[in-house]
């Protein structure tokens, strides 16, 4: 999955990406799914999630984005406000692709190699 912040603004620092990953791991655990890999850049995040067929991807995405937006705004209010205004953190859209046929190691390597801001 790929999520972008509203207006593709770049609010993510290494610290915020690390906290975002922690939040998203907790949400995945609540859904009985596994966040296999997480990485991002200043203006987007990549997630590799292993989830069972009983989980509706739209509900998982809604929770991942909703919980992370609320917590990141609470924990980093000054920084986030510089980049995003109004009530929205994430863009309403997202990219999700199934990789059932591809080896997870290849997808994981791709996500690991995404550049973090620095």
Automatic annotation (TrEMBL):
Gene3D superfamilies, alphabetically? Answer: Transposase IS200-like (3.30.70.1290)
Give all residue intervals belonging to the Transposase IS200-like domain.
2-114
Q: Could you tell me which InterPro entries the record lists for this protein?
A: Transposase_17, Transposase_17_sf
The domain of life is Bacteria
Query: What Pfam families does the record tag this protein with?
Result: Y1_Tnp
User: What's this protein's name?
Assistant: IS200/IS605 family transposase
